[in-house]
Amino acid sequence: MKTVISLDDLTSARTALTGTVGLVPTMGYLHEGHLSLIRLAKVECESVVVSIFVNPTQFGANEDLSKYPRDLERDLRLIEPLGVDLVWIPTPGIMYPTGYQTWVEVDAITHPLEGSVRPTHFKGVATIVAKLFNAVQPHKAYFGQKDGQQAAVIRQMTRDLNFPVDVVVCPTVREVDGLAMSSRNKYLEGADRKAATVLFHALSAAKTAYEGGERKADVLRGKMKEVLASEPRAMVQYVSCADYDSLEELDLIQGKTLLSMAVILGKTRLIDNFVLG
Ligand code: AMP
């Protein structure tokens, strides 16, 4: 496993890779969710590149950039046995050198949900993913359904900008009690960790109603809100039942649908989603 930092070293190491190249972009502090993407990339591609970069431009001014958990040694220990060929760990100065001024903005689908609470977030995400695609030139790139809107934005951007990259979205990996794995779960302590399962229970309640034949989006949103309201520690930011691709809120469920939510527990902000249909 080769580890590189500079763009020049990345470029020469990339040139040496053969066959289908799969890229798994991460912000580090890896868990089973990240490892599941790497494992799938290993199955589907001859060469696998993992990037580890806590991208400052996707954090808002009042967000947790300086406190975002990092442990590079542990990350490399976790990746090594998976047979990854190349790990790129650029610095902020490499990705955004002095004088940097070019941004990728995806329009309508970045406005609702996460975009309504984190207005600059997807500009940072789309820009860094475009830069990673250009630098690594992967044939395939692997993202988690855990960040459902992010996956939709990246699919849209890839299509709109004609990146010759096959975007693969992998299922959300969960703890045994249903909590979606996330680097930020580290912040959850005691009662907040226990309360965090409320997102999974709320999504499950809506899914059960859907499986029972319910197709009114408002009823499913109501089910999710009802379960979330039963947890006094949970501060709800949004609850959504939207079209899977456009992310527009639905009246009636007909095709593939994204149930999603953002909830604050103590100092930790959690997001989760289920896909229906
Ligand atoms: P992050 O390091 O949080 O930026 O995540 C890197 C990639 O891993 C993103 O594509 C995430 O959607 C994905 N990911 C994060 N958590 C999970 C999870 N629990 N299950 C599957 N994929 C995940």
Secondary structure blueprint with pairings:
Elements: E1 2-4, H1 7-15, E2 21-26, H2 32-44, E3 47-52, H3 72-79, E4 86-88, H4 92-95, H5 114-117, H6 121-136, E5 140-144, H7 148-160, E6 166-170, H8 190-195, H9 198-211, H10 217-229, E7 234-243, E8 257-265, E9 268-276
Parallel strand pairs: 1-4, 2-3, 2-5, 3-4, 5-6
Antiparallel strand pairs: 7-8, 8-9
Helix pairs in contact: 6-7, 9-10
Bound molecules: adenosine monophosphate.
Adenosine monophosphate is lined by residues 26-27, 33-34, 36-37, 143-144, 146-147, 170, 172-173, 180-183.
Specify the biggest β-sheet: 6 strands, parallel
What is the ordering of alpha helices and beta strands? EHEHEHEHHHEHEHHHEEE
Spell out which ligands are present: adenosine monophosphate
- Could you state the CATH homologous superfamily of the largest domain? HUPs
CATH class category of the largest domain = Alpha Beta
Q: Helical segment tally?
A: 10
Mean pLDDT over the residues: 97
Trace the largest sheet across and list its strands: 1-4-3-2-5-6
The residue fraction in helices comes out at: 25-40%
Strand content: 15-25%
C-alpha end-to-end distance: 39 Å
Give the C-alpha Rg: 19 Å
Instruction: Find the count of extended strands (DSSP E, 2+ residues).
Output: 9
State the gist of this model.
The protein is an alpha/beta fold and 277 residues long. It is 36% helix and 20% strand.
Task: Kindly describe this structure.
It is a single chain. This protein has 277 residues and is of the alpha/beta class. The protein folds into two domains: 2-170, 3-Layer(aba) Sandwich (Rossmann fold); 183-276, 2-Layer Sandwich (Pantoate--beta-alanine Ligase, Chain: A,domain 2). It is built from ten helices and nine strands. It has a six-stranded parallel beta sheet, sandwiched between helices. α6 packs across α7 (148-160) and α9 runs antiparallel to α10 (217-229). The longest helix has 16 residues, at 121-136. The radius of gyration is 19 Å and the shape is globular. The mean pLDDT is 97. Bound molecules: adenosine monophosphate (AMP). Residues 26-27, 33-34, 36-37, 143-144, 146-147, 170, 172-173, 180-183 line the site of adenosine monophosphate. Adenosine monophosphate binds next to α2 and β5.
